[in-house]
Design a protein that fits this description.
The protein has 17 helices and two strands. It is mostly helical. It has a two-stranded parallel ribbon. It is globular. The two termini are 39 Å apart.
Length: 367
């Protein structure tokens, strides 16, 4: 089996992370050597970009909530809830980058910001998610893959379905009727469910203190300002309904019904349209093959990495690339395994010209 790729001139912890995410399943492997120089350029972690990305999502949600409350009109509330749900999806995707230490060059800053600004607001923990997610990278689509247990714990992830079954799943997801089953299947990611578990790196003491302190602070502010009902309508309801639906679409598309006989078809890349990118797949999260091949690349650069790889015949020979999430639905509903064929027309899966960032030295951010 191919050994873990060397990452010269990287701090020891980044080398360790590369080993923890190395694909360890005995399947066909993609030869990475030729694209590694470009991958290193795309793997730069930018503190300023992360601050801007996180700040923009929160600013958008705050302005949307203010507009709804100020207007008091039901239509503005609906529009604001749609925007807020889409930005909550962004928080989850950025938390995923945080789990890979791709937000900030300093690990403690990375984890504290990721917990406070991304994970805790969604009822998740970056450190708990990291443990599960790194195992998923090493053992994708095997019995040791934590994500492989989802279809066993939640029948909504079992495909194909009848047309009626698919329609009923969409309705239940939008209405949040299948949330209890999802909570049970993913309770290991909840910091509240693990608050009194033995101390360890998966949920360190500082994370528990931050969780309780910030939660008490937020509830105190909301209750004292008389904004409980508007906050429930604008944040909790969209999170339990639309976010539940869009996140299920994203999760289902990544690994369900793929051939899994090669590293490049053990997951699925989806090239989204603008609407899908807004609600389902922000920050390049749909370029999932690329992420599994090179988890050192931040999500914002995965689209450019996709364009580079599409020029490599060795990649397109095996890669499972689908155009739009409607295309994924067609594959999920197809009884035959024709849906797992490799890419035939690579041009339709391109995004446009690729411009690589210039190398720059990212200094270790002060804690």
């Amino acid at each position: 089996m191919t050994k873990t790729m060397d990452i010269p001139n990287e701090p020891g912890w980044r080398q360790e992370l590369a080993e923890l995410t190395d694909f360890r399943v005995d399947r066909g492997r993609y030869a990475r050597q030729e694209v590694m120089p470009k991958v290193r350029q795309l793997s730069q972690v930018s503190n300023l970009r992360s601050i801007g990305a996180i700040g923009f999502q929160w600013a958008t949600m705050i302005v949307s909530a203010w507009a709804a409350i100020y207007s008091g009109h039901w239509l503005v509330y609906i529009l604001a809830a749609l925007v807020i749900a889409s930005r909550m999806q962004c928080l989850g995707v950025l938390m995923h980058d945080g789990a890979h230490y791709l937000l900030f060059t300093n690990r403690m800053v990375n984890d504290v910001v990721s917990e406070l600004c991304l994970a805790f607001p969604l009822g998740l923990s970056t450190t708990l998610y990291r443990e599960e997610h790194l195992r998923h990278h090493r053992f994708t689509n095997t019995d040791q893959d934590p994500d492989a247990s989802l279809p066993l714990a939640d029948e909504d992830f079992r495909w194909p379905k009848t047309t009626r079954g698919c329609a009923w799943l969409i309705i239940r997801s939008i209405l949040g009727l299948n949330l209890p089953r999802m909570f049970r299947a993913t309770k290991q990611l909840s910091p509240w469910a693990n608050l009194f578990s033995p101390l360890g790196p998966n949920l360190p003491l500082y994370s528990r203190i931050l969780l309780v302190a910030t939660t008490l602070s937020v509830y105190t502010v909301v209750l004292s300002s008389g904004m409980l009902i508007p906050m429930l309508v604008l944040f909790v309801v969209p999170g339990f309904t639309l976010l539940n639906f869009t996140n299920r679409v994203r999760v289902t598309s990544e690994h369900m019904r793929v051939a899994a006989d090669h590293e490049l078809n053990s997951t699925r890349t989806v090239v989204p349209n603008w609407l899908e990118r807004f609600f389902v797949a922000p920050f390049g999260v749909s370029y999932h093959i690329e992420h599994h091949l090179f988890p050192s690349v931040p999500g914002r650069n995965l689209g450019r990495l996709h364009d580079i790889l599409m020029d490599d015949p060795k990649f397109t020979e095996h890669a499972h690339v689908t155009h739009s999430y409607l295309g994924v639905l067609g594959e999920l509903m197809t009884p035959a395994q024709a849906c797992v064929a490799p890419v035939q027309e690579s041009a339709m899966h391109r995004r446009g010209p690729t411009i690589l960032p210039q190398p720059q030295a990212d200094t270790e951010a002060a804690v």
